[in-house]
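Suppressor of auxin resistance 1 protein (Trifolium medium), 318 aa
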Amino acid sequence: DDILPFVSSIFLRRLMLPGVHHNAALHATLAEYNRHLGESELQTLTADGLKREILSLIEHEVGSEKVSIVHCWKCFFARYFHNWCKNNAIYGLLVDSSTVAVGLIRKKSVSLFRSLEDIERIVEGPSDEVSELASVMDLFDDDIECEILIELLRCVTSFSQQLGKTASSIFYESLLTAPAISSEDIVKCIVKILETGYCISGPVLQSSTFGDHTIFLQKELTDHRSLRKLSVDMFLSLQGLYKKASTWDKILNVIEGLLKFLVPQKRMLKFDTEMSSNINSSIMVHSSYQIAKVMFESSWDFLLFLSYLVDISGQVSL
């Protein structure tokens, strides 16, 4: 029971994110659950009040339907996504040639496209762009270190793709709340899963994370094979990385150089008018969140990678 509020807080936080939260979509979704709040009434609710309203709905569904809390959240988000798409139908593009800005005009909102920041291009860009950026920004001393960085990014991307977004969301929530399991234990747990190829099948995770026990058992063998393949691929990649670098010191220096680049930079902006401030503040909040999200998830990926590396250090001559 202690883990259930923690699970709900992950979903609630995701629902409140910039670009995800939409008042009309939320109003329509609540109406489907017979929660008939007016749109104006919904807008007057504080963030905490809105969370309490949604949480009471989910808890009612869990009690009446006798299903897992994750199943209820999945159903809620499926309905919310449908309503979000319905209320944000695409009408056209807006192009500002003077600033090379592109906007996507929707039914009840506008989405703006921006150029990627350097950290986003390094973490998510193609290999040739990563190498070019690393050289321009003076991150490393020679081409070998750039090649090591590219291989490292491939390794941590393998972890990220295998685990999906769930692991980083759980870890992030553990840093902001007082969960039943600490952030350190979460890292140890995930590293153990990566090392052994088996997901934890204890009753807590069965009831709160995977829901139906039968589905969990059916997936366990497939997940095990996938994780074992990841372990073998990672072992071969680390061997190749060590051979290229000659020493682990050089590899760790490259990681340290990138991690320094992941430290957020504080920016202070001033706007002339109230209208400009409202519009630009909204844009800045959204874009700052996107950049911070990339930086956090990259830091998480490297934390997981380094923890895994320490765990198998004897196998890779570390």
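The CA atoms of residues 29 and 80 lie 6 Å apart. Residues 3-87 form one domain. ok done for today
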